[in-house]
Amino acid sequence: MKDKKTLQSQVAYEVLNGIDGEGMSRRDALKVMALGGALTTFGVPTKAEAGTKSDKEVKVLVVGGGSAGIMALARLRSALPNAKITLIAPNEKHLYQPSQVFVAAGLQTIDDMIKDNQEFIDDSVHWIKDEVASFDPEHNQVTTRAGDAIKYDYMVVATGIVYHYDKIKGLKKEDIGTHGISSVYLNNAEKGTADGGPLTWAWFEALKKSSADGKKPTAIYTAPSTPIKCGGAPQKILYLSADHLKKEGLGANFIYATAKGKLFSLPEINQSLTDVQKRYDKITNKFRHNLVAIDVQNRVATFEAIYESKGEYDPDLEEYSIIKEKRMVDMKYDFIHIVPPMGPPKAMMDSPLGWQKGTAKGWLEVDKETLQHRRYPNVFGIGDICGIPMGKTGGSARHHGPVTVGNLVSQVEGKPLKEKFDGYTVCPLKVEYGEIILAEFNYNGLAPSFPLAVEKPRYIWWVFDLYMLKPMYWYLMLRGWM
């Protein structure tokens, strides 16, 4: 296994190679490398497991081979050197999913975002290339699709999130890329394909051509009512495609249709995004509009919309009551970018490990700070599957890693669980080509890693995201060095 210094050198080489390929000036290249030195501490979580190790011979099962699962593996091997570690994951390819947006914007290619998963899985790990069909935490075992029962002493659940295009009536996956429909999320991690990026880039170009032909196309961008991986992605596609047209002096009728009631939960970021929208041809926001059906052939999207109206006046409270009304709203479009509803895998939904009620039903029931299961103390979570208020981003999974592993080792040793996840989430909102709002926040609100106003769009974050984050991910994060 390569040491940290060698891997850091690899990061520097890939960053410079990527910059050279873009024709960046030497002066800017030096700035990027200086930035890199500082950003190795970017949003760095506590090294929770560094002083927490166990020599006990235990069986640890990791379920899921995406970002969260691989990060957990790397840390577990260091913290539990005598453990027998098993990984259940079907995907032989690993996708660096943040690149999908850059591929959609015409700045990267599919080759930039796919590597063999074997590169990150040590030979000492028993890798079962299958998927869990059912969980049985009462008996400390899982059953695979092939019917094999796998026992464990401790388990880390990193199954990730599932895209449900099927929950939009009238839409089939095969429709994406036709009839003005795109979705940057479209991929198949198990097969190592990521069609969403290229299809969305073609969609960008088709939108531009339609506008250049003298039309004023209507483009709709949707965001569902469910939690989603990378909550800012719907707006990233909106602003980048709008900027793609703007650079040619073109525009469109842009409609952002979201199930949420505002652009962003934090007021500072919400105001900044409101200001960003003024840069472009008119953007109409349709809040509390959830896409439920689509007529592919006739290009009509149907939304379940929640409208609020003023009711009777209450003289005691000196205010009007608010009446909420649901309506079905049809919108015609020329182009539509769809973010599908998302949820836990079926095996988790059907298992006793998931929350049993409320809006979190089916998501892994872990404590929001310790990431330990609330009813099965030998089970821990990491990544998107966790049923906690925040954390469905790669940056969150990186912060989960030391907490999950540190507390698992403490559980093995019979010690109190001291490591706490603070809810850290990072969302690099691409508001135009060359500018990003780096929204960092946690359970308590804004949580910037650097003394910069996080609500301000900056070129420096664009450089970091485009050039530095990917090699840092491949050579440091997945190997447990960050």
Topology:
Elements: H1 4-22, H2 26-39, E1 59-63, H3 67-79, E2 84-88, E3 93-95, H4 99-104, E4 114-116, E5 126-128, E6 132-136, E7 141-144, E8 149-151, E9 154-157, E10 162-163, E11 181-182, H5 196-212, E12 218-223, H6 233-246, E13 253-258, H7 267-277, E14 283-287, E15 289-295, E16 300-314, E17 319-332, E18 335-337, E19 342-343, H8 346-349, E20 379-381, H9 394-413, E21 425-432, E22 435-442, E23 445-446, H10 459-475
Parallel strand pairs: 1-2, 1-9, 2-5, 9-20, 11-18, 12-13, 12-18, 13-14
Antiparallel strand pairs: 3-4, 6-7, 7-8, 10-19, 15-16, 16-17, 21-22, 22-23
Compact overview of the structure:
The protein is of the alpha/beta class and 482 residues long.
Using brief descriptors, characterize the structure shown.
24% strand, 28% helix, FAD/NAD(P)-binding domain, 482 residues, 5-stranded parallel sheet, 2 domains, alpha/beta
